Amino acid sequence: MQKNHVYVNRDIEVRVFRSFEGSFVSALLGPRRVGKSTLVKAYMKRYPEYRWVFFNMDILKDRQRCADGELQTMIQERALCLIGIEETIWVVVDEAQKCPELFEQIKILYDQFKEQTIGIKFILTGSGSLSLHKLSAETLAGRIEILYLREFSLHELASLQHGIAIPKISIIDLALEDPKAVAAAVNKLSPYKAILDKTLHTCLSWGGLPEMATMNTEEDKLIYLGNYLQTYLEKDVRAIEEISQLNVYQKLIEVVAAQTGSIRDDKKLLESLGCSRETLKKYRGYLIATLVYQEIYPFIDSSIKRLTKSPKGYLVNNGLISYLTGISDIGILESNGLIGHRFENWFLQALNIWLDDTVGQQRIDYWRTSGGVEVDFVVDRKPCVIPFEVTVGRQINNKKIKHLKMFMQEEKRASQGFYIYNGPYKYDQEINIHFLPAWCIC
User: Fold this and answer.
1) What is the Cα 44 distance to its own chain's centre?
2) Residue in 92, 83, 87, 326 with CA at minimum distance from that of residue 222
3) pLDDT (average), residues 280-298
4) Residue 298: enclosing H or E segment and its boundaries?
5) In DSSP terms, which residues pair with 379 in a beta bridge?
6) Which residues pair with 94 in a beta bridge?
7) CA–CA distance, 15 with 274 (Å, rounded to integer)
8) Beta strand pairing status for 144-148 and 25-29?
């Protein structure tokens, strides 16, 4: 059974709330059911004295009126005042991407009142990228700050499930800033190691969707995931006119779930789906745009040659992978060798969460030469490049260390490397590589 809902402070709250208090339009994006509306409503509760207006574009009547150009009228009806006359009106639009006609109206209102101390503040949420509708992204260019909310981090999930306040320490940031301080930070977290290890197993089997976090039985979790997938297909995918073969789209989700963490093989995908190459490309684009699937591309630098060119693909949520493949048991995952891909998928989401809370240009790649030398993830966060080798094992694999060292020797911006595994923390100062236990990436 599911326990009563408990609000959990999100690790990215400070940055999100700072955006809400800024002058730009704020857009909080993320996959379905990761808690976007809950986070916005938590902010609304902090400031009940504000004049709030809330719209949900899942509601047909609201969506139709907005599509007909009535946004300003609707705001004034619900705020019971004229915009810019008495006080600032705070307008929240949930699932904003479902009404592309909104964005031109938001642009007009934003431009009209942006220089005034009393006016209007827009907060948008969406379970799809604004690029889902090109018009939306183009219309608000230069006027919008885009933020992302993911499923629960290891830290958030452990804090909720065990009802304790675990210290929040960004081990990777600390390592980059002061390598010698990492050992003390890991030691500070060590009293929570057993809890974090147990929570990590949950992440590998079931992912970190907030509503899943308080479900006790496997049956409850599978039922929830089945409903989650069906709702995604019925509410998000059916609304995309360009998707005419829903059965092919659903089959694509099943295939990418089974192939998560692997280099993309379009030939095999086309054989499995029985569709055209153009349909595959289009449908995969919508998987990415609706934020349930992520591709990472090879790291390319002028100093590094002979690289593999195809991307690797990841279905974002490990719980959906368990549901679609029928494998959720850690023991089975270990015995059939699939645990490594689940571990890699979890760490990719941890990297996303880490980068979401920073500013500036950044990208996640991987590195693989035609000779088979590989580094799992390479974060290009100007001016630095940060390589990560990821393995579920408890022992250090010398071959993987060799690959990390080769990359760091060829890429001069990579001054430090990271080896993420399930063994103890150590720092090899000679080669400048941190060996981080997974449980402390929280």
Assistant:
1) 23
2) 326
3) 96
4) strand 293-298
5) 364, 386
6) 56
7) 44
8) parallel
Q: Return left, alpha or beta for 91; rule: phi > 0 is left, psi -120 to 50 is alpha, else beta.
A: beta
Helices within 217-374 (DSSP H only): 218-231, 246-258, 266-273, 277-289, 318-325, 330-335, 339-356
* Nearest residue to 10 (alpha-carbon basis) of 210, 190, 189: 210
**Could you tell me the two tokens for 151?**
């499923």
pLDDT in tens, 384-432: 999 999 999 999 999 999 999 999 999 999 999 999 999 999 999 999 9
Measured CA distances, 179 to 95, 186, 436 (Å): 42, 12, 12
- Type and span of the H or E element at 113: helix 102-113
How many Å apart are CA 346 and CA 349, to the nearest integer?
5
> What are the two backbone dihedrals, phi and then psi, of residue 369, each rounded to the nearest 5 degrees?
-90, 165
- The C-alpha atoms of residue 340 and residue 331 are separated, in whole angstroms, by 12
CA 249 from chain center: how many Å?
21
Which of 200, 191, 214 has the alpha carbon at shortest distance from 153?
200
- C-alpha span between 138 and 376 (Å, rounded): 34
Q: Write the single-letter amino acid at 286.
A: Y
Query: Pairing relation of β-strands 384-390 and 120-126?
Result: unpaired
Give bridge partners of residue 148 from the DSSP assignment. Answer: 29
Contacts of 136 (CB under 8 A, 6+ apart): 96, 97, 100, 102, 103, 130
Query: For the packed helices 318-325 and 339-356, what is the interaxial angle rounded to 10 degrees?
Result: 150
Q: Are 160 and 213 in contact (CB under 8 A)?
A: yes
DSSP characters over 358-389: S-S-EEEEEEEBTTS-EEEEEEEETTEEEEEE
Answer whether the bond into residue 191 is a cis peptide, omega within 30°. no
Max CA separation in the chain (angstroms): 68
CA 116 to chain centre: 35
Listed in sequence order, the DSSP H helices in 207-245 are 218-231
Condensed to tens digits (0 to 9), the pLDDT of residues 184-231 reads 999 999 999 999 999 999 999 999 999 999 898 999 999 999 999 999
Average pLDDT for residues 266-282, to the nearest whole number? 95
Angstrom distance (rounded) from CA 154 to CA 208:
8
**293 forms bridges with which residues in the sheet?**
315
- Residue 372 or 249, more confident: 249
- Determine contact, residues 304/411, Cβ cutoff 8 Å: yes
- Interacting residues of 245 by C-beta distance below 8 A, sequence separation 6+: 275, 279
As a whole number of angstroms, the distance between CA 380 and CA 320 comes to 29
Q: How far apart, in Å, are the Cα atoms of 105 and each of 29, 75, 111, 245?
A: 20, 12, 10, 33
pLDDT over 60 (residue 4): no
